[in-house]
Write a structure and sequence with these properties.
mainly alpha, 5 helices, 0% strand, 170 residues
Amino acid sequence: MARSKKSRKVGLIGVRKDPDRKPGQKRLESTPRPKKHKGKPAGSRHNVGQGENGTSKRRENQDPRLGSKKPIPLVVKKTTITTPTQKQKFATPSEELAALEADQRLASLLDKLDDDKQLTKEQQSYVDEKMARHRILCDLLGIVEDDDEDDDEMDPLGDLDAIDINDFKK
């Protein structure tokens, strides 16, 4: 078999689809081909108002920003603060005394004082104020506070310590 020399000329690789078409001619068509669309158009996220027909009117009125639309005051208004510790008015001193003895805060602070725990200045002033009012109400109602000294006077066995055994010896 004889050897064939390589050439640099490139021939047709495949068969042409249209045999009537000449290489220098452009394609002539009656209707142009539609363009292929890939993805969404540029800037679609910034054009909020454009889109469907029904929602465009509603979106024009709607604020595109997220979050609360409540206005924030830049200047603080001074308001009068009402304290919850306003004095209650009672019909009789006995009702006031009953309310004072049923006060849970006062009872817990008195328990702390009995346990020798320290109170803050505000707590101590609260206890002093309530105890002073308690003494005034007890005086108005004629209630006498029982002291431990009164119990010692009534104790019949308390006199036994005062007896000296040497007095009975002769």
